Amino acid sequence: MKTVFAFVPAPGHVYPQHPENPNRLGLFKPPGHIEQVRVVPARPEEVGRVHTPQMILDVEAACKQAPAIIDFAPTFVTPTSFEDALLAAGAALTCTRLVLRGEADNAFAILRPPGHHAEPRRAMGFCIFNNVAIAAHEALSSGLERILIVDYDAHHGNGTQAAFWEDARVAYLSTHQEGIYPGSGWIAEAPHARQRIVNLPLPALTGDQGYLRAAEAVIRPLAETFRPQLILVSAGFDAHWNDPLTRLGLSSAGFFALSKFLVDLAGEHCNGKIVFLLEGGYLPENVANGIAAVFAALEGKALPADVQDASPYPEPDVSQRLAEICRWQGWQAV
Ligand SMILES: [Zn+2]
C-alpha cells in the first residue's frame, strides 16, 4: 500500500484578519515515512475544463491589482494568489494522476486556497479555482466514466455541485450544516439528478455517531447505485465541534471513522482509488489532527493515540433527517 501527499501551503496568499490563512497549516508536520510528491502548477486549459476563460482572466487581472476582495465572503487575492491557486489545482491534479496511473494507491492533496465554493463563472467563499472539480475532469479525460465526489466540509460545496449539475459522469454528495453559508445544499435541490446529486443538510452539533449513520444510510447506497471508478473527497475539517466558523460536532476520531469508511468504500468499488483534498477547517490543531486522521485511514492504521478531542456536546437524533433524505433519493430508509 503506497500513500503519497502533496503540500501547497501558499504563504503569499494571506490577508489581514482572514480565517483562511497559512497558519491553518501551521501545526501540520509532514510525515517522514510518506512520500511527498512534487507539484507543478495546473495549466490554464486544465483549469478551463471547469472555469470559463473570462473567469480565469478576471482572477489573473484581480491579482495584478491586489490585495483585493473579489467576493463578499470575503474572498481575497494577493499578488501571488493566481500562481498559488494554479499550484493548489496542480496538487489536486498531481495526486489524481498518480493514483490513476497506479503509481500510488491513494493520496492526499494538502492545499490552499480551497476550492469547493468556486463556481464555473466566479471565485467564491475563500475559494479561487475548484480543485476537486478540476481533478474530476482530469480523471474523466483519462477515460474514467464514473467519479464520486464526497464533500464532508461543514459547508455545502455549491461550486462543485454547479460544475457537475448536468454531468451524469460525476456524482456529488455533500454533508454540511443546515442553514449556514452559502445557503444551498437542500435535500430537494436537484430533482433532475436523484441518486447522483445528494445533499445532506445536518443539524448543528451532528457528531461522530450521526455522521457514521449518514455514511451507512446515504453514502453507501449512493456508491452501490453509482458504482464509481474513483472517489475524490473534499476534506474540510471545519465540521469539527470547536471550529470557530461553524457548529457541527465531529471529533478527530469521527473524521478518522468517516475517512476510513470512504477508504473502505473505495476498496469495495474502485480498486482502492481515492484522493483526499483539503478544503476548510479554521483551527490549526483541528486541521493537523484531521490530516493525521486521513493519513491513518489511507494507510490502514489506527488514529494516533495522542489525538483525543471528543465532543462535549450531546448529539441530536438525525433519524428523521436521514429517513427524509433516503425517501427523496428513493433509497430504503435505514
Ligand atoms: Zn467549510
CATH homologous superfamily descriptor = Histone deacetylase domain
Task: Report the top-level CATH class.
Answer: Alpha Beta
Which small molecules are bound?
zinc ion
pLDDT averaged over residues = 97
Derived structural class: alpha/beta
What characterizes the major β-sheet? Answer: 8 strands, parallel
Structure notes:
- This protein has 334 residues and is of the alpha/beta class.
- The chain has one domain: Arginase, Chain A (3-Layer(aba) Sandwich).
- It is 35% helix and 15% strand.
- The protein has nine helices and ten strands.
- The strands form two sheets. An eight-stranded parallel sheet has the order 2-1-5-10-9-6-7-8, sandwiched between helices. A two-stranded antiparallel ribbon has the order 3-4.
- Strand 9, helix 7 and strand 10 form a beta-alpha-beta unit.
- Helix 6 packs parallel to helix 7 and helix 7 packs parallel to helix 8.
- The longest helix has 20 residues.
